[in-house]
Amino acid sequence: MYHTKVKRITTIASSEGGMSSSEPGLPPQIQINTGMGPCALLNEFFEQVPEAIVFVDGRRRVVRANQEFVRMFGYAPEEIIGTLLSSLIVPPDLRDEADQLTASMSQTETVCSESVCVRKGGQRFETHLLEGPLCISGQVAFKYIVFREIADREQIGNAQAEPERDRLEHVFHERDRLRLLLDLNNRVAAHCGLRQVFQAISSELRRLFKCECVGLALPDASDETLRQHLIDFPEGKGHFKEGTIFPVEGSAAGLAYRRTKAVVLNSFSEVKANWNSEAFRTFSTIVQKEGTESGCFLPLMSEGRALGVLQLISRREYAFAGQDVEFLDQVANQIAITLKNALKYDEVTAANSRLAEAEERSRNESLALREQIERTSMFEDIVGSSPALRSVLSQVGKVAPSDSTVLILGETGTGKELIARAIHKRSMRAKRAFIAVNCSAIPPSLIASELFGHEKGAFTGATQRRLGRFEAADGGTIFLDEVGDVPPEIQVALLRVLQEREIERVGSDKPIPVQLRVVAATHRDLNQLVAEGKFRQDLLYRLNVVPINVPSLRERTEDIPLLVEYFVDRYGKKSGKKFKTIDRETLKLFQEYNWPGNIRELQNVIERAVILSEEDTFLVDETWLKREQPEVAGPTGALNGALLKQEKEMIEAALADSCGCISGPMGAATKLKLPRATLEAKIKRLGIDKYRFKVQPSK
Predict the structure, then answer these.
(1) Are 504 and 572 in a shared domain?
(2) Helix 158-189 crosses helix 194-208 at what angle (to 10 degrees)?
(3) What is the per-residue DSSP string for 600-646?
(4) Same domain, yes or no, for 544 and 557?
(5) Which of 11, 57, 400, 484 lies at 20 to 30 Å from 508 by C-alpha?
(6) Domain assignment of residue 354, yes or no
(7) Residue 425 burial by CB count (10 A; 0-12/13-18/19+): exposed, middle or buried?
């Protein structure tokens, strides 16, 4: 027979009991430099082991053989690699039987046998043979075969069986250790997570060192306690688990952490006296309840400091020897690399999370602030139902869906920005930004930078590039309030934006395209400004595509009761007051008043009355509305300081000279150099009948 004796051992890699007395012995232990890396250690072991070893692929062709195999069978290395194994070592008359037996073997079993082999010169000899799978990442990649020549069968008796079995078990134990280091090294190189690496090696560590528990403890922020971060304790009683906290002072893991050196305790019962009883109590309680007797604790070192502690704990005394610590130091070094990477990853993840939360919080606060601004500025609703207001809203509804430029005209305080926002909210750009710019509030020297932005170093103080309002409004709507106050040099740039839809930052000649809608507003007479040379006529044509005239409060007095009710309710809620009724005399007074400040003035009067009111009926002190309103100064100062009589005479003279015409190049407003709206207010306040001048023109 080819195989005279066969013993199968299923998955010998997980066996703890070694092999039977029939298995062969090996020479004394192999001396390997433990300071080498995992791959180098494996190669060194393969070449030094005093047994012939060969690796074969799935077709039984040799992929690698060590020096002892070359010596035993007499072949040169180049004759071996790639050759069918049976053609090298099996006598020709026994090959059929050998092939049949090989075909019947399981790919996952480890088999011990005694076989007849043949050397290159034809000499037959008997060998002990051990064959098993070589797995990589859990899959059978090759098979290994170990040969040991039987020199004199009778010399190997029962007296030598036990030592030989122990030696063979030691060889496989060293192989498993090297395989573990190699696998650990590969996982660290692949940047696997800490938990993933721990789970991959913990069960193998428990098997190799015949211990019941493998754990990983990390220090808390205080550095005074250790927290059990990971643990593999299948037979644990639940007293030692993830999240368990124990003091650094008074625990074996803490001792290793503080000393930054491995600590081996072979008998927990003998070391209780080494710690203060109070500090040792937590650790001692866990030890007693779990029934553990010995442990090996290794600091995870990185850049000279301990990041944590690797723990191996056994229910047997003296379970860890000195050589175990040398090997476990290598394991701890690899885990320390993974732990360091994991901690840095956690720091980056936490920083990104904080940044994302801050951005989200800022975005939410911005939205809330925008909503608050809209509410406090009455931008949510337009209050009123007068024909004059309905006419304006009809125009808004028609122009909003288009992308045309809109020019909003009206006195100060009539709600021009409210109309502009209504146009934006009903347009196709409603989901994008609405940027409002008060052109009269920006100093002339800064308006170009404010509107179009600037490059770094464009002027003194320009320490970084800044985006202007037009770029901020890209895709949305920009509202240019008081556009009549824009300086001439900026008017040229505005004309280019309206014509070419592109801007240039201050300090740059590179055009930047912008896609936005322009809505402008003014309380001034732009035609008069054009006539005076203060406003470009071509810019007026570009702005005045769709003009909308917002009526003054004097022209929509029927809306005053609704506005009063709206503001009283709004400011009442803000002040924590509730009014049951509104005084009728107050409403009558409001409707008879001229309101030169329009809705803004009405809003301020109501807010003051709400604050000062102590009754549940809203009313206003009559004297507030009888006070002489300040006049709007004209550009020439012709009316400044004049008495009312002189003022009335001057206006009547201008009306007579213009045949009762107020606006236009030959109108009274032009002659007096006053805005049309201002002149209208003065005519009404002074009680001048402007119509009588139409039939009696000045001679």
Answers:
(1) no
(2) 170
(3) HHHHHHHHHHHHH--SSEE---THHHHSPPPPPPPSS-SSTT--HHH
(4) no
(5) 484
(6) no
(7) middle
**Residue 374 pLDDT greater than 90, yes or no:** no
Q: Does any domain span residue 542? A: yes
Q: Residue 9 in 3-state DSSP?
A: strand
Report the pLDDT averaged over residues 609-621. Answer: 86
What whole-number distance in Å separates Cα of residue 233 and Cα of residue 211?
9
pLDDT, tens digit, 9 for 90 and up, residues 478-509: 999 999 999 988 898 899 888 888 988 888 88
Q: What is the 3-state secondary structure (H, E, C) of 115-174?
A: EEEECCCCCEEEEEEEEEEEEECCEEEEEEEEEEECCCHHHCCHHHHHHHHHHHHHHHHH
Looking at the fold, whether 424 and 562 belong to one and the same domain comes out as no
Q: For residue 81, count other CB atoms closer than 10 A to its CB.
A: 12
- Does residue 655 share a domain with residue 577? no
Please give the mean pLDDT across all residues of the chain. Answer: 78
- Which domain, by its residues, includes 663? 644-695
Give Cα separations from 457 to 179, 356, 462, 507 (angstroms). 63, 32, 5, 8
Q: Is 552 helix (H, G, I), strand (E, B) or coil?
A: coil
Q: Which two tokens stand for residue 295?
A: 């442990």
User: What gap in Å lies between CA 543 and CA 498, rounded to an integer?
Assistant: 8
CA atoms within 13 Å, Cβ hemisphere of 373: 12
Q: In this structure, what are the phi and psi dihedrals at residue 683, rounded to the nearest 5 degrees? A: -60, -45
Strands 139-149, 213-219: pairing kind: unpaired
Three-class secondary structure of residue 544 per DSSP: coil
157: in domain: yes
User: Cα separation of 265 and 285, whole Å?
Assistant: 16
Instruction: Name every residue whose Cβ is closer than 8 Å to that of residue 397 and which is 6 or more positions away in sequence.
Output: 426
DSSP-derived secondary structure for 363-430: HHHHHHHHHHHHHHTT-S------HHHHHHHHHHHHHTTS---EEEE--TTS-HHHHHHHHHHTSTTT
Query: Residue 372 pLDDT > 50, yes or no?
Result: no
Q: Give burial (CB, 10 Å; 0-12/13-18/19+) of 154.
A: exposed
Instruction: Give the other-Cβ count within 10 Å of 299's Cβ.
Output: 24
Whether 181 and 203 map to the same domain: the answer is: no
Distance of alpha carbon 292 from alpha carbon 207, whole angstroms: 17
User: What type of residue is 244?
Assistant: T
Tell me: do 265 and 145 sit in the same domain. Answer: no
- List Cα–Cα distances, 170 to 72, 167, 326, 619, in angstroms: 23, 5, 16, 103
pTM to 2 decimals?
A: 0.41
Res 16: pLDDT: 36
Number of domains within the chain: 5
Kindly report the CA angle at 237 between 235 and 242, in degrees rounded to 5? 90
Going by C-beta distance under 8 Å and a sequence separation of 6 or more, which residues neighbour residue 350? none
Quick one: which H or E segment has residue 227? strand 225-232
First to last CA, the chain: 147
